[in-house]
Amino acid sequence: MLPIVLLSVFGIVLLFLGFLKSKAILLPATLLCLLLTLVVNFIDWNKNYVYFNGMLKTNNLSMVFTAIVLGSAFMVVALSSSFTENEESQPAEYYGLILFSLVGAIMMVSFENLIMLFVGVEILSVAMYVLTGSDKRNLRSNEAALKYFLMGAFATGIMLFGMALLYGATGSFTIAGIGSYAANPQVGLSLLLYVGLLMLLIGLLFKVSAAPFHFWTPDVYDGAPTIFTAFMSTVVKTAGFAALFHLLSASFTGVYAFWWTILAIITAITLVAGNVTAVYQNSFKRMMAYSSISHAGYLLIGLAALGSQTKQAIVFYSLAYSVATISAFGVLLLVAQQRSTQTITGEGNIAENFDSFNGLARQNPLLGFAMTVSMLSLAGIPLTAGFWGKFYMFSTAVERGQIWLLVVAVLMSAVGIYYYFRVIIAMYFRDGATEPIQVAPFYRYVLLAATILTLGLGIVPGVLQGIF
To answer: Closest Cα partner for 76 from 117, 128, 125, 112?
Structure first.
């Protein structure tokens, strides 16, 4: 509860700081706010508190997900120094919206009532609609924002209708109330429960870019400013999967036999659509969009095979994926800024294509190493966090006996190695007219921290076990 209050207050304060002539204070103020909120988040560790008549609940698991969300936001904001350097940008508004969106994300990981889930989704979504279209002079950004808004509005409507049907079936909006009803199938469950659950899942699966609800993702990720793409692909996805896990594990285990097959099929489609389509992308940014779809598929494995290992698997995978993705987008930001030709093609900005990375590791070994570790982790190569994230996810499928889903996931992981290694090959084995890229000290520290964390979790994966 306290993180929500702090983020709300600091978001309003940042908007007022925007009236100052100097923008220099905005970035450190935002980082300080996020760091303070991250520390405060753990004050109630090992304690359970319920707020607003049971609509919001904090426990160790919600605090861990909140920490991942806040930590990801801290790293993304730390890479956004270009906002304060651009005279035409409005960093106070951007940072304020980021803080407000985090309020929605925390609600999504802490809800105990479907109404609170809906409010959290809307707060997060509306902020992302605005941030996606923040580059007003870029037609791709405007198109992406419009597409995201229209499709997001339809998905929200479907989700809200599903909540209404669940209330009609169970007479309750609370997670406990719905769970107690679904746990007694002998009384004859209403058809409204099943239809409501499906519609609620559709709305949430849209938010995490699961197929076949993923068609907005490539255009929105490509059109949005890169820094907000990084935020969207990490914070939004983590909050979405935290909400899905809490919803399914607390309310619908009683009807697991009904929804697991549907979710498993969606998982397989997501894995195939994300990985196969990423293979023939020429834009690194669009490749990362399809990569995000594929990783949604890996996370869905843990939900389809809901069991004793799912909680640990989702937390670890969310952290590993977020850190590696932020590192990759951080390097892309620097490369695109230096090599941008201001030319827009059907593929997007050509400075964001794979060719832009040619020879990067020779002139910029730090950036090359950070990108390499990021790509290896996303590909699931051993000694990186991504390997253990996939291992834990695959273990949940084995625990449930869903071997066919495991086979699909392993095959798609092999496909993923191809397009992730395209970047590594370009950096180390191709010639490019590269010049050393100047990296600000704090920017360098963030990339180093992300790289060390990725390698550290890969070498000592058990450090997070048992803490929640």
So the answer is: 128
> What's residue 175's pLDDT?
92
Quick one: pLDDT at residue 104? 94
Q: How far is CA 327 from the centre of its chain?
A: 14
CA distance 73 to 68: 8
Mean pLDDT rounded to a whole number for the chain: 88
Q: What is the DSSP string of 283-307?
A: BHHHHHHHHHHHHHHHHHHHHHT-S
CB burial of 309-321 (b: ≥16 within 10 Å; e: otherwise) equals bbbbbbbbbbbbb
> Residue 430 gets which letter from DSSP?
S
Counting the structural domains of the chain, the total is 1
Q: 64-86 burial string, b = 16+ CB within 10 Å, else e?
A: bbbbbbbbbbbbbbbbbebbbee
Q: Which residue has the tokens 């937390």?
A: 315
Bridge partners, 113 (sequence order): 174
Residues 6+ apart with CB under 8 A from 400: 304, 305, 306, 307
Q: Hey, what are 216's tokens?
A: 């907005």
Q: Which two tokens stand for residue 27?
A: 């970035």
Give me the pLDDT at residue 449, please: 93
In the three-class reduction of DSSP (H, G, I as helix; E, B as strand; rest coil), residue 50 is classed as: strand
Supply the DSSP string of 196-243, one letter for each residue. HHHHHHHHHHHHTT-TTS-THHHHHHHHS-HHHHHHIIIIIHHHHHHH
Q: Are 144 and 129 in contact (CB under 8 A)?
A: no
Beta bridge partners, 353, equal 283
Which residues lie closer than 8 Å to 153 by C-beta, 6 or more apart? none
Comparing C-alpha atoms, which of 172, 313, 188, 160 is closest to residue 254?
Answer: 188
Q: Are 193 and 166 in contact (CB under 8 A)?
A: yes
Contacts 24+ apart (CB under 8 A), 409-414: 409/271, 409/297, 409/298, 409/301, 412/271, 412/272, 412/274, 412/275, 412/276, 412/294, 412/297, 413/275, 413/379, 413/380
HSE-CB at 398 with a 13 A cutoff on CA atoms is: 9
Residues of the chain falling short of pLDDT 50: 341-348
What is the rounded distance in angstroms from the CA atom of residue 194 to the CA atom of residue 166?
A: 8
Radius of gyration from C-alpha coordinates of the chain: 21
Dump pLDDT digits (tens) for 404-426.
Answer: 999 999 999 999 999 999 999 98
- The residue range of the domain holding 63 is 2-464
The pLDDT value given to residue 351: 64
Per-residue pLDDT, 204? 93
Q: How far apart are CA 259 and CA 204, in angstroms?
A: 14
